[in-house]
Design goal:
With 196 residues, the protein is an all-alpha fold. The protein has helices at 2-50, 56-154, 169-192. The model has no long low-confidence stretch (mean pLDDT 86).
């Protein structure tokens, strides 16, 4: 946004210079036309005075004025050419600045769209994280209840001592495996004795 503001200020300055130079150009063209009119009038006057020998001194003065006017016209034309060149350069600069402004606006719009998309993705991820945490808490609660029931079933059998402290999963598995092995041995013993 700062770059766009800077480019717009440059653009306004260049356009102001362009308007000023165009105004100077119009003034120079007006002066050039006036000088040409003066030159034509002096030429007509010179032709009229040439016919009268009485005005030879005046003719010389008019000739000098004509030379001076021609020199002024030449200088004005040269200055006008330079002004036209400067106008073209300023117009090119203005066009370039306008293109840079458009490019900057496009990039800013593109960045805004990317930021909005990232924001949307972040909101979606936050929602999914919340859902995952709720599901994890539910699963953890069910697992704890299931584990508690397993421990209760394991140590409620005859001959089992109730645990005195918090049991690890490995200790629970070992107790269950011990009960299973004892039952398998008892089953084998009954089978050998022929008891169904």
């Amino acid at each position: 946004t700062g770059a766009i503001s800077s480019l717009q200020r440059q653009l306004e300055i260049q356009e102001s210079q362009l308007r000023r130079i165009k105004s100077e150009n119009e003034m120079l063209q007006k002066q050039l036309r006036e000088r040409e009119n003066q030159l034509g009038a002096m030429s007509a006057k010179f032709c009229s005075l040439r016919e009268e020998r009485k005005h030879e001194d005046m003719m010389a003065t008019i000739e000098k004025e004509n030379c001076s006017l021609r020199q002024v016209v030449t200088e004005q034309e040269s200055k006008l050419t330079e002004q036209n060149k400067l106008i073209r350069e300023l117009q090119e600069t203005v066009s370039q600045l306008q293109a840079e402004v458009l490019s900057s606006r496009y990039h800013i719009h593109k960045q805004q769209r990317a930021q909005e998309e990232i924001q949307s993705q972040a909101e979606t991820l936050q929602h999914r994280e919340l859902q995952t945490r709720v599901a994890l808490e539910c699963i953890s609660s069910r697992f704890e209840r299931y584990r508690s029931k397993i421990i209760q079933a394991t140590f409620s059998t005859l001959g089992s001592k109730p645990p005195q402290a918090e049991l690890t999963d490995e200790e629970v598995l070992e107790a269950m495996q011990k009960i299973i092995n004892e039952r398998m041995e008892f089953h084998q013993m009954l089978k050998q004795k022929g008891v169904k």
